[in-house]
Specification:
Elements lengths: L14 E6 L3 H16 L3 E2 L8 E6 L4 H13 L1 H6 L4 E6 H6 L2 H5 L5 E3 L7 H11 L3 E3 L20 E5 L1 E2 L10 H5 L3 E2 L2 H13 L4 E5 L16 H9 L6 E5 L8 H9 L6 E3 L7 H6 L6 H14 L4 E8 L6 H14 L3 E6 L17 H24 L5 E9 L7 E4 L5 E4 L9 E9 L3 E6 L3
Parallel strand pairs: 1-2, 1-3, 3-4, 4-5, 5-6, 7-10, 10-11, 12-13, 13-14, 17-19
Antiparallel strand pairs: 8-9, 15-16, 15-18, 16-17, 18-19
The chain binds 5'-deoxyadenosine and iron/sulfur cluster.
Length: 450
């Protein structure tokens, strides 16, 4: 018998609150899991207090992300005491990494579900309901993707599609290969089928997701690569745009760049983390390239793909990073002029190679370097965006603007966010916008004539 509650009716037992931390892959896993749960009769609610099932999809890439989840979990202790029938689950990277240690630290958690077990969520919740708490599911299933069953989509015109999972690179600081497992790719036909189904439901732009997307195809029969996949999507009618993330400089071949330059649907935007501008630090990070190699690769890509926008990630305060090393990163940012960059303070992850090095850069210094790079990038982004002033850009309209109700929001092929005035019927359409104002993050404009 289920315990009775003053705020749950029988029907309301199938209510789920879902919060996601971390990367785009996590957001997509959440979307697909919610689709599965919806198909199983669940209703998605916005408040923890309204939910019978509370799920956190977690991230392990930095300590800060884990601390946040533990603090959220801690805050649920009282609720669980009052309503023991509520099911609390930890999903994803932290679940994979910490396993049953989570039950030890947070005994009120009922479910720990790893990165390759999402497709079993409805069944796992049922097991808890019928047989009790502390269910652990962290096997490394070979299933590369959760089936997209229901139409739970945050945006009707834009969708993410997993094309490969896992990473074999083992950069010395990174936990991903340990929590996401070895690289597995989906077949081109499988991916194309999913894309076609999304497009027949109105989707206009697809972003292909993989932790290390340039090595897409490894292990698949027939020697296929990312270029083949992108080429195969070129002939999906009614699909306007294709994007792909995240690129690794050592695996981004010149052949792939040539292929991208030929394809009309692939957008002029790559996210290819450099991580550092110092060869010494790149060596310690085991990235497999030098700063010179990275710069040449970007020059080659810019030569072949006009109007290419490049985004990057950088880590500051890696063990042993000197002021000189840091200045090389500053110089790289000045020289390459990225469209935008994500900057992170190094955070040691137990089990990785870098965790064996002494984390010797003081937090204060990490913070200062972080701030300097953020400020530098802000200046560069603003200067670069100013170059678009008075120009016409192509925008895929996503819908109403969140920050400015009454206006519409969309993205350029270079992935700039654009805000402009227009009627809601433009959602899902490609329009030309003349840019009138810019900040470092956003472009503002008006519908172009003609
Ligand atoms: N500490 C700080 N940043 C990290 N990243 C990955 N691992 C760590 C770590 N241990 C950053 C990298 C990566 C991004 C997703 O997160 O820059 O590209
Ligand atoms: Fe982590 Fe490196 Fe793999 Fe990216 S390429 S997920 S940074 S190990």
């Amino acid at each position: 018998m289920m315990s009775s509650s003053h705020f749950f009716t029988d029907r309301e037992y199938k209510t789920v609150f879902f919060e996601t931390f971390g990367c785009q892959m996590n957001k997509l896993d959440a979307e697909l899991s919610l689709g599965l749960l919806q198909e199983d009769g669940y209703r998605i609610v916005d408040k923890v207090e309204d939910a019978y099932v509370v799920l956190f999809n977690t991230c392990s890439v930095r300590q800060h992300a884990e601390d946040k989840v533990y603090s959220h979990l801690g805050a649920l202790k009282t609720l669980k005491k009052k309503h023991p029938e509520v099911i609390i689950g930890v999903l994803g990277c932290m679940a994979q990494k910490d396993g049953k240690a989570i039950f030890k630290r947070m005994p009120h958690v009922d479910l720990v579900c790893g990165t390759r077990m999402f497709s079993r969520l409805p069944e796992l919740i049922l097991t808890i309901r019928n047989h009790g708490s502390h269910v652990l599911a962290v096997d490394e299933d070979q299933v590369v993707s959760v089936k997209r069953v229901a139409a739970y989509r945050p945006n009707a015109y834009q969708a993410f599609v997993t094309v490969m999972r896992g990473c074999d690179n083992f950069c010395s600081y990174c936990i991903v290969p340990y929590v996401r497992g070895r690289e597995i790719s989906r077949t081109i036909s499988d991916i194309k089928e999913e894309v076609q189904s999304l497009v027949s439901n109105g989707c206009k732009e697809i972003t292909l997701l993989g932790q290390n997307i340039n090595s897409y195809g490894k292990g698949l029969p027939g020697n296929v690569n990312l270029g083949d996949l992108l080429s195969a999507l070129e002939d999906v009618d009614a699909l306007d745009r294709v994007r792909f993330v995240t690129s690794h400089p050592a695996d981004m071949s010149r052949d792939i760049i040539r292929t991208i330059s030929r394809l009309k649907k692939v957008c002029e935007h790559i996210h290819m983390p450099a991580q550092s501008g110092s060869d010494r630090v790149l060596g310690l990070m085991r990235r497999g390239y030098t700063s010179g190699y990275y710069r040449e690769l970007i020059s080659f890509a810019r030569e072949h793909i006009p109007h290419l926008a490049v985004a990057s990630d950088f880590i500051v305060g890696f063990p042993g990073e000197t002021e000189e090393d840091f200045q090389e990163t500053v110089q790289m940012m000045e020289d390459i002029r990225f469209q935008n960059c994500f900057i992170f303070k190094y955070s040691p992850r137990t089990g990785t190679k870098a965790a064996e090095l002494i984390d010797d850069v003081a937090d204060e210094v990490k913070r200062e370097r972080n701030l300097k790079l953020l400020e530098l990038q802000k200046r560069i982004s603003l200067e670069e965006n100013k170059k678009v002033l008075d120009k016409k850009v192509q925008v895929l309209v996503e819908g109403g603007s969140k920050s400015d109700p009454g206006k519409l929001s969309g993205r350029t092929r270079q992935n700039h966010i654009v805000i402009f005035r227009g009627t809601p019927d433009l959602a899902g359409k490609l329009v030309n916008i003349t840019i009138q104002e810019v900040t470092d993050l956003t472009l503002f404009g008006k519908l172009a004539k003609g």
